[in-house]
Write a structure and sequence with these properties.
heterodimer, A: mainly alpha, Ferritin, 4 helices, B: Rossmann fold
Chain lengths: ~180, ~280
């Protein structure tokens, strides 16, 4: 498991601010990918990303609900305490391709879900605040159920490692 | 850097327009869009106080995707349009977005004089070393040995244009290089660029997945600048000339007088009409 935390998170409000950003960013990115796939006529993957965005919205709403009564600190976009350049559960844009398959999209989602789970688990292991440890452990457990759901989904699709199908209309055009 | 005292009223997603980007999936420009919306949210800028100006090219589509004032202008003329706007409306935060071809080839002359003039504007150049919208020709920042275009089957044979060196020589007062693969740091740089009083150049390495798929390797090649002495132009010049083109961070920042026309009429319309009366 790679280290996903640059510094320890030491208060519940700070942790919830991180969790909210993680979930909102993830949902936004899936929505962006879904829209982009639609533009490029990859409707099957677009639909899948829309579903994942919807799940992300649900998780973000759950965190928001949990944060009721807390005054969450404002954290500048570059001051979040994850060690990766973006929120750990956000799919990396550069991993997308207009011809990506449903299986590749599911693998991408699984990879991100594992990172989300590992982030929460590391917070749970490292924070000195028992309330943070407890909340992070709960969220890590919840993320673990998402990881297992996605693994089952990948299995249902009988995904095998395949490269992208040949591009019958490649970008390099004769000049 | 000044952080807002309270949570910004608008979130980054509130600055996104309803128009869906048509960039290729995997394009680096998505990260620039995300950084721009996050920077605007961080600074708490009202949408009606921001104007995004662009020229032509994939990256120049950025203003359409941000919910603020925008102007998608003529190829290479974004800086000229922006200077006109800033002259007329100095109260606006003016951002200019474009690519390496639009900014350094077609708009090369405007680039030099925008640096020299030092108006309070921020120029974001998304550099992918290729003309993507016209299907992959060499741009001013393309390596001389790049042979993948039928227009340059033996490579361009020309040295690359050096944006940071040119900007420094021409008088830009804030110069930095960011990378779309590090959106958080890109956001931080963009906030700093917008806050800088004067002309700021944010040169962004933004891979083109379609015509330059080998740029996926940039992630492994980028590295921070070795030293951080950014206030001294001589040190900045040395840093730029020792650079392999993949160093990231602030290169130069200096506070010099900002040029802003006073917009005070020296003559009335009636007096001018009188002058031209035959």
């Amino acid at each position: 498991m790679s280290n996903l935390l640059s510094q320890d998170i030491e208060s519940l409000a700070e942790f919830l601010a991180h969790a909210l950003e993680l979930e909102v960013e993830s949902a936004e990115r899936y929505r962006e990918l879904a829209d982009n796939m639609r533009v490029h006529n990859n409707l099957e993957v677009s639909e899948l990303f829309h579903k994942l965005a919807h799940y992300g919205d649900t998780h973000a709403a759950e965190v928001e609900q949990r944060a009721v009564g807390f005054e969450l600190p404002y954290i500048s976009p570059w001051d979040f305490k994850w060690s990766c350049p973006e929120a750990p559960e956000s799919p990396c844009m550069e991993d997308a391709h207009y011809m990506m398959t449903k299986c590749q999209a599911l693998e991408l989602a699984l990879h991100n879900e594992i990172r989300g789970r590992d982030f929460y688990a590391q917070v749970a292991n490292r924070s000195s605040d028992p309330a943070v440890r407890e909340a992070a452990a709960e969220m890590a457990a919840e993320e673990d159920t998402h990881v297992n759901m996605l693994r089952a989904w990948v299995a249902r699709e009988a995904c095998v490692a395949v490269s992208r199908p040949p591009d019958l209309d490649p970008p390099h055009m004769p000049e | 850097m000044n952080a807002p005292a309270t949570t910004p009223a608008l979130r980054a997603k509130d600055y996104k327009s309803d128009i869906k980007p048509i960039w290729c999936p995997g394009c680096g420009h998505f990260a620039v869009l995300a950084a721009a919306t996050k920077a605007l949210a961080h600074l708490g800028l009202p949408k009606e106080q921001v104007a995004l100006i662009s020229g032509i090219g994939c990256s120049s589509r950025l203003p359409a995707y941000i919910d603020s004032y925008g102007f998608h202008g003529v190829h290479g003329r974004a800086l000229a349009v922006a200077a006109g706007l800033k002259t007329a409306r100095p109260d606006l935060t003016v951002l200019i977005a474009g690519g390496d071809g639009d900014g350094f080839s077609i708009g090369g002359n405007h680039f030099l004089h925008a640096c020299r003039r030092n108006m309070d504007m921020t120029y974001i150049v998304m550099d992918n070393e290729v003309y993507g919208m016209t299907k992959g020709q060499a741009s001013p920042t393309t390596a001389p040995e790049w042979t993948h275009s039928k227009m340059t089957p033996h490579g361009t044979g020309m040295r690359r244009f050096q944006p940071a060196a040119m900007a420094l020589a021409a008088g830009a007062t804030w110069i930095a290089r960011g990378f779309s693969g590090d959106p958080s740091e890109l956001t931080r740089l963009l906030v700093e660029a917008i806050q800088h009083p004067g002309f700021s150049l944010l040169h962004v390495l933004s891979p083109c997945q379609t015509f330059r798929p080998e740029q996926k390797q940039w992630k492994e090649q980028v590295h921070p600048f070795a030293d951080s002495n950014t206030g001294d132009p001589v040190a900045a010049a040395q840093r730029i000339h020792a650079d392999d083109g993949m160093a990231l961070g602030l290169i130069y920042a200096n506070h010099l007088p900002v040029w802003q026309p006073r917009n005070q009429a020296t003559s009335s319309i009636a007096a001018l009409e009188e002058e031209f009366r035959v």
